[in-house]
């Protein structure tokens, strides 16, 4: 499986800087994401993770730096552009609308339509059958497609959101702290979902605080601190302790550099 | 591994659940509160006011007309509330739009169709302005439309006083004589059928006077037709189209909807415009019926619309509700208001009844909603 590292990255973020007025949120962060890999983005609060993924998903425009998507420089004017290109974001809390049914949530913003008497109607039959099918694939048994999302557990909601992104052709899936509010069992379900998605050849960007969650599914790790890349590593080249130290502020960065074989 | 083990049991399992869901799905609906309330109200008046004439042709027309009035504004308020916003300026808009039609057609002498069309354009633009201010400033729509409640009412009093030196402008019925668009709001349909029903003895006819031989109900007012058309339009829009999904999404969680590519701002502004449209339909029908426009028309209608919508099962904070439910809420409202009159109950007790129904329906709706959505 080492051959995948020789693949071209699907998205490269080169020296991204983002300034908000006088605040420098990102001061030159570079990340490469490969198809079929899970790239973990770690960092403490205020490290710039959110700004970074918002730049990647088209919410913010970088002040400096370049985004190369599938080998071509990209400029996203708004998130819709990014979604159309195949960059999907699943937010921690803002993924699903609890009052709406799973089927309505699944197709929110991408509603299938059929024409009747020249008028476009929401194709509920198609939406319902696709929703049930996709949920079954992800191991969630719904009572029915009209079951409200509010009746699902937090982990199931994340899984619905991930399944939705994959169904609509995401090539890069950005997961913004999907496990931070979940229990052990639900976390395991979400991590298993990430693994399934990765095996379909989709690039996953997994933002987390939790080193153990990152190590469970991550192929590459990038640690951000104060708007800069503090370190990067690949699976098997770093121990949990080292990753933890790095996240905590990089006290042992010097020692780490040696153990990473100069990849920092 | 679990998938292979599951597949036979899953089908059994889901079959069982679908059965269970069959009666649950039929019962647990957002409209359930409205349905229960409607049945209760008709039972109550069926028992207490049966021989009062409430359920003969004239009586039915009476409370149907009042209910239809509530329905017209409830449809707009319902869709707007589901989209997550309020419009408190509905009542003032009714007065203002009616006054505009009167000023254009009587004072300025425009043809009635032109007066109505220009009024619709202006009203919908004011609705759009409401929405635009709410979206741009991020202020609660409660406050923004409260401001318009006063602004529009102020103009509704100021304009006729300044122009005509009075607060009621009449003479619209004469101006609307033979006008095609006037008839769309003030006319009646199925006159032939009612004439036939009168002759066949199905409904009573006048026995003396200038209208002797004519049925007591000579047609269905366009007001009721508008109510039915708007309810069907609103229901289909909300439940059967992609735009309907956007309305739910915009009110359920605007940020999540935006993240999924739903044009939330556009949806909300359109719904403000639609609410203004409904208020103007109400105004046009009322002006054609009365033949005049008054500065006090539409007072408190915004609250009546919101009450009907809430009785119908909509969530005040948005994202959940039903147009059919709102229509039933309007029906309950109209039947209670007119039924108490038929039953000979002191009219001030109307408010007591209304309060009890509102409270009961909202409590029931809250339980239903929690069952459906898993809210805590």
From TrEMBL, chain A:
The keyword Nuclease does not apply. Keywords: ATP-binding, Hydrolase, Nucleotide-binding. CDD domains: ABC_Carb_Monos_I. Residues 11-251 form the ABC transporter domain. GO terms for molecular function: ATP binding; ATP hydrolysis activity. It is an enzyme of class 3 (hydrolase). Its EC number is 3.6.3.17. It comes from the Bacteria. SUPFAM superfamilies: P-loop containing nucleoside triphosphate hydrolases. InterPro entries: AAA+_ATPase (IPR003593), ABC_carbohydrate_import_ATPase (IPR050107), ABC_transporter-like_ATP-bd (IPR003439), P-loop_NTPase (IPR027417). The keyword Nucleotide-binding applies. This is Ribose import ATP-binding protein RbsA. The gene is rbsA_1.
Automatic annotation (TrEMBL), chain B:
The keyword DNA damage does not apply. Keywords: Cell inner membrane, Cell membrane, Membrane, Sugar transport, Transmembrane, Transmembrane helix, Transport. One of its GO terms (molecular function) is transmembrane transporter activity. Part of the binding-protein-dependent transport system for D-xylose. Probably responsible for the translocation of the substrate across the membrane. It comes from Pseudoruegeria aquimaris. It is a multi-pass membrane protein. The chain crosses the membrane at residues 32-50, 62-82, 88-108, 115-135, 141-159, 216-238, 269-291, 303-336, 348-368. The lineage of its organism: Bacteria, Pseudomonadati, Pseudomonadota, Alphaproteobacteria, Rhodobacterales. This is Xylose transport system permease protein XylH. Pfam families: BPD_transp_2 (PF02653). The keyword Cell inner membrane applies.
């Amino acid at each position: 499986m080492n051959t995948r590292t020789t693949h071209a990255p699907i998205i490269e973020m080169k020296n991204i800087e983002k300034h908000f007025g006088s605040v420098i949120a990102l001061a030159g962060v570079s990340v490469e994401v490969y198809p079929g890999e899970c790239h973990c983005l770690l960092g403490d609060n205020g490290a710039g993770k959110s700004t970074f993924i918002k730049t990647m998903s088209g919410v913010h425009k970088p002040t400096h730096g370049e985004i190369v998507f599938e080998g071509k420089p990209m400029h996203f004017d708004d998130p819709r552009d990014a979604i159309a290109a195949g960059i999907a974001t699943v937010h921690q809390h803002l993924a699903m609308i609890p009052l709406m049914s799973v089927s309505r949530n699944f197709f929110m913003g991408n509603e299938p339509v059929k024409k009747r008497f020249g008028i476009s109607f929401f194709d509920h039959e198609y939406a319902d059958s696709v929703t049930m099918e996709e949920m079954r694939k992800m191991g969630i048994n719904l009572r029915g497609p009209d079951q409200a999302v509010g009746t699902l557990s937090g982990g199931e909601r994340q899984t619905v959101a991930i399944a939705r992104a994959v169904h609509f052709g995401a090539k890069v899936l950005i997961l913004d702290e999907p496990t931070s509010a979940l229990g052990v069992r639900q976390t395991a379900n979400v991590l298993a979902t990430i693994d399934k998605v990765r095996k379909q050849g989709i690039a996953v960007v997994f933002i987390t605080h939790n080193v153990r969650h990152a190590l469970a599914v991550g192929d590459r790790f990038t640690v951000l601190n104060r708007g800069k890349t503090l370190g990067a590593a690949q699976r098997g080249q770093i121990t949990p302790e080292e990753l933890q130290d790095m996240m905590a502020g990089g006290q042992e960065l010097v020692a780490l550099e040696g153990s990473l074989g100069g990849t920092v | 591994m679990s998938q292979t083990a599951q597949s036979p049991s899953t089908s059994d399992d889901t079959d069982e659940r679908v059965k269970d869901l069959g009666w649950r799905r039929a019962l647990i609906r957002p409209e359930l509160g409205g349905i229960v309330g409607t049945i209760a109200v008709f039972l109550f008046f069926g028992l207490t006011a049966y021989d009062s004439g409430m359920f003969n042709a004239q009586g039915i027309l009476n409370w149907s007309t009042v209910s239809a009035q509530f329905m017209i504004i409830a449809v707009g308020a319902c869709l707007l509330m589901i989209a997550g916003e309020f419009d408190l300026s509905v009542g003032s808009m009714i007065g203002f739009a009616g006054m505009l039609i009167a000023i254009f057609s009587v004072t300025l002498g425009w043809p009635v169709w032109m007066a109505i069309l220009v009024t619709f354009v202006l009203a919908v633009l004011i609705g759009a302005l409401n929405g635009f201010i709410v979206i741009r400033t991020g202020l609660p729509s409660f406050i923004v439309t409260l401001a318009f409640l006063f602004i529009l009412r102020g103009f509704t009093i100021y304009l006729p006083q300044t122009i005509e030196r009075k607060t009621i402008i009449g003479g619209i019925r004469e101006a609307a004589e033979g006008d095609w668009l006037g008839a769309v709001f003030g006319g009646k349909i199925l006159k032939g059928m009612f004439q036939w029903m009168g002759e066949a003895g199905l409904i009573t006819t006048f026995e003396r006077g200038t209208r002797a031989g004519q049925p007591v109900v000579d047609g269905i007012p366009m007001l009721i037709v508008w109510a039915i058309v708007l309810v069907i339009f609103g229901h289909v829009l909300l439940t059967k189209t992609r735009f309907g999904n956007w309305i739910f999404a915009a009110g359920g969680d605007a940020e999540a909807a935006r993240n999924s590519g739903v044009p939330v701002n556009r949806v909300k502004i359109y719904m403000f415009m639609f609410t203004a449209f409904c208020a103007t339909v109400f105004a046009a029908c009322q002006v054609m019926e009365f033949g005049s426009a008054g500065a006090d028309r539409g007072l408190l209608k915004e609250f009546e619309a919101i009450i009907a919508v809430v009785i119908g099962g909509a969530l005040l904070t948005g994202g959940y509700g039903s147009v059919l439910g709102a229509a039933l809420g309007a029906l309950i409202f109209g039947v209670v208001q007119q039924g108490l009159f038929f039953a000979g109950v002191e009219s001030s007790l109307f408010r007591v009844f209304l309060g009890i129904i509102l409270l009961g329906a909202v409590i029931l709706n809250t339980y239903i909603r929690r069952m459906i959505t898993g809210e805590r």
